[in-house]
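Incident log, support desk, overnight shift.

02:14 A customer reports that sequence design results differ from what the structure should imply. Their input is reproduced verbatim below. On-call engineer (initials T.W.) acknowledged and began investigating.
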């Protein structure tokens, strides 16, 4: 029982480390253990490659303004309060071009959404990066589809039929596995899947007075050896 729990914990920690490394360096540093098809009982214990994170392009508001002024031969004016648009608070900066609040409108009456006059981006500073990062399959580069939302994580799946991960898994099945797969497709993990954890890591630390809301066995479904 203890061994099982330790194994699940180690695999869970590997997933977190890989996720954090990907966020830090922007690419996967660890190779996948195997691309073989995995039966459902074991699939929660398989550690996949990390997806490709497409980070949004960064612009420079000073260059954009200079470009505008050169093209139109007139000054690019800061924002003025309009009928339904107030100005953004002083500490808000456009996450895409870095424009200060003097170029930003409050776009929804103080509820956290702003509009940048320089690069025309609508954003909420709290979730701009989360929303604008596109996840791609590490095997075929196609955009992953979000298929499930759980309490602490989202599940993304590559639905590309020509994906090498999917094709290789199909090819490496035995005859009886193929027949089984036709009848029970949910029993095999053949497509690339990524779980994106959304919970706060802080409660997991020993010092924190708040106990973790996450229990490992709920994320890693127990398997029967
Ligand atoms: Zn901007
Ligand atoms: Zn793919």
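02:41 Re-run completed on a clean worker. Output:
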């Amino acid at each position: 029982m203890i061994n099982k729990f330790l194994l699940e914990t180690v695999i869970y920690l590997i997933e977190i480390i890989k996720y954090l490394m990907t966020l830090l360096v922007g690419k996967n540093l660890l190779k996948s253990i195997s691309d073989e098809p995995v039966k459902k009982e074991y699939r929660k214990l398989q550690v996949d490659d990390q997806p490709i994170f497409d980070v949004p392009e960064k612009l420079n508001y000073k260059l954009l303004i200079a470009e505008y002024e050169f093209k139109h031969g007139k000054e690019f004016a800061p924002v003025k309060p309009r009928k339904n648009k107030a100005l953004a608070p002083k500490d808000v900066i456009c996450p895409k071009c870095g424009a200060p609040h003097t170029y930003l409108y409050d776009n929804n009456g103080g509820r956290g959404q702003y509009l940048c006059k320089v690069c025309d981006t609508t954003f909420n500073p709290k979730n701009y990066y989360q929303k604008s990062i596109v996840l791609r399959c590490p095997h075929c580069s196609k955009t992953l589809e979000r298929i499930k939302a759980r309490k602490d994580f989202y599940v993304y799946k590559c639905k590309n039929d020509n994906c090498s991960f999917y094709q290789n898994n199909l090819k490496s099945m035995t005859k009886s596995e193929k027949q089984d797969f036709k009848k029970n497709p949910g029993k095999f993990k053949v497509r690339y899947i990524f779980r994106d954890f959304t919970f706060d890591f802080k409660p997991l630390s020993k010092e924190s007075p708040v106990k973790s809301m996450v229990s490992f066995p709920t994320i890693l479904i127990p398997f029967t050896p």
